[in-house]
Amino acid sequence: MQGAELRARELEIVLPGGDGVGPWSGTIEPGEAVLIIAPSGAGKSTLLRALAGAIPQHVRAHVTGSLEIFTAGGRIDPVAGGVAATAGAVGFVGQDPAAGVAMRIVADEIALPLESRGVAPALIGQAITLALGAVGAAHLQDRDAAALSGGELQRVALAAALVAEPGVLLLDEPTAMLDGEGIAAVREALRVVPADVTTILVEHRLDEWTAGEGVEGLPSRTIALDRSGRVRADGPTDLVLREHGRALLEEGCWVPAQTELALLPELARRLEEGTAALDPAASRDSAPLHGPVGAGRVAAASEAGEVPRTQGAPAAEVMLQARAVTAGWGETPVLQGVDLELRAGEITAVIGRNGAGKSTLLTLLAGLLDPWEGEVSGERTGLAFQNPEHQFLMPTVIEEIALGDPAGAGEALERLGLADLAGRSPFSLSGGQKRRLSLAAMLAHGRRVLLADEPTFGLDRASTHEVLAMLREAADGGAAVLMTCHDLRTIAQCADRALLLENGRLHALPRGGTPEALTADPSIPARAGMSVPPLLTRILGAGLPLRETLFALASPGVAPEIPGPVSSRDGAAELPVAKGRREGAAR
């Protein structure tokens, strides 16, 4: 397959709830690589689904304007022709790889697109091996897809997209569930994609994607959307970030660390000079900028020039414990001899490679998996699943919250910026909105132990800070919180300690597994398949306090308030809300 050209003219997609994306007019040339940056819920996935042919034939929406794909074989209209028309030219990796898996065995999943194209059977075996090897997943070839972790499934999904050599490759947050090694494997796999293949990337983890290369490591062109889904900018990536970086941050987008620091000259100066103190007031005076955050406790602390505490309550009560636990699925052991104590007021992060058993550990602690040996005892837990859709039970957003807290459901939705979506189905929300809803719904039950499986994956900057504030507030209210996470910056900002899950066993880490210890010794996160973000290395190298500096980057204490409905009420702060952006919803 040769590369394809994409052309859009006044393309606008409006979903049934009134949200949408566009209008957008533009051309993407064969071989061009494009990055899409936007807040959660702005329509990034909607645009990619339209390009893949899923809208409006499989996902209901009202589409106006035109969208065309030109290949060596002719013209394709994804809107009129649907997936049947695009299947031969477009490869798609979605946010949830499990949703796209059709076959039970991994090798059969990779073979499916080749068989659909009539590839000679003698060639298929070698193609499977090459595709899985390119994404670092050769060892998964004969595995049952249902037994894979989210990160392992993500690699399989990418291999299935690449194996048919598409002319257009659509990547919707391909690293969301991956450890550091998985990200590196995906990046290397894309390096061998033919130069004329057109690539469109939606990605939040920009610094990890570039592996320290900064803006130079990103696609050369960026399309930036505002919170309503309208095009803010379309042009060279360095120019878009330079001219619109402040607006993107204010709307809650992740941008590369070098863009953050360019907008925070006082912090950048201190990192260069190695000043071992950070004055939030000085940063506030020099850089009128912030990304929205969640809990009022955090906002109040920032206004006072303080930072969140770094440790849980002294002499905290043990809320949940596991003793010599061995468990697994079927006849396959995943956890062996696990000992664990979760204490009130403390956030514990569990790190480990994809497939190490982190989700299995949380499933066990939640009582959804029985131990083969040993025992789990303590308080009843609440579990926020890695895939939010796996826990939704009610037909509407407000009913999902009301299931745990009927009286406070409306207020909770206001706080989360989901009030306008109260009557919508939870399954119709964007990925970031689903994540915030799933965590809030579990917190509404008031459980004293909260288990959160990758609570920030796939979230933009604003939603990440909101979720971290929710976790911190729960811990400060006396809950014991256990989270899994692949993002060291998130752990450094939120967790009190970390544990390593490796070869089925849970290991305590030096110096209590504090964020400083994880960042200072790269060999420790490396065992979990994680890398230390360059920004964290610079912060520690300059002698700056790690958590306080990250807090300054994340909080309103860095700068005056930005325009918009950011206010404090009853210990909570609201995020700017994306109101109904269209006069008419899809019919």
Structure description:
It is a single chain. This protein is of the alpha/beta class and 587 residues long. 35% of the residues lie in helices and 21% in strands. It is built from 22 helices and 21 strands. The chain has a six-stranded mixed sheet, sandwiched between helices. Strands 15-16-17-13-18-19 form a six-stranded mixed sheet, sandwiched between helices. β1 and β2 (20-28) form a beta hairpin.
Number of strands: 21
Q: Give unreliable regions as ranges.
A: 276-314, 556-587
Question: Rg from C-alpha positions?
Answer: 23 Å
Class by helix and strand content? alpha/beta
Number of helices: 22
Query: How far from one another are the termini?
Result: 37 Å
Biggest sheet, strands in spatial order? Answer: 6-7-8-3-9-10
Overall 3D form: globular
* Largest β sheet strand count, sense and barrel closure: 6 strands, mixed
Q: Which superfamily, in CATH terms, is the homologous superfamily of one domain?
A: P-loop containing nucleotide triphosphate hydrolases
Kindly state the mean pLDDT as a whole number?
Answer: 80
CATH architecture classification of one domain: 3-Layer(aba) Sandwich
Q: In CATH, what is the class of one domain?
A: Alpha Beta
Topology-level CATH name of one domain: Rossmann fold
- How big a fraction of the residues is strand? 15-25%
* Overall helicity: 25-40%
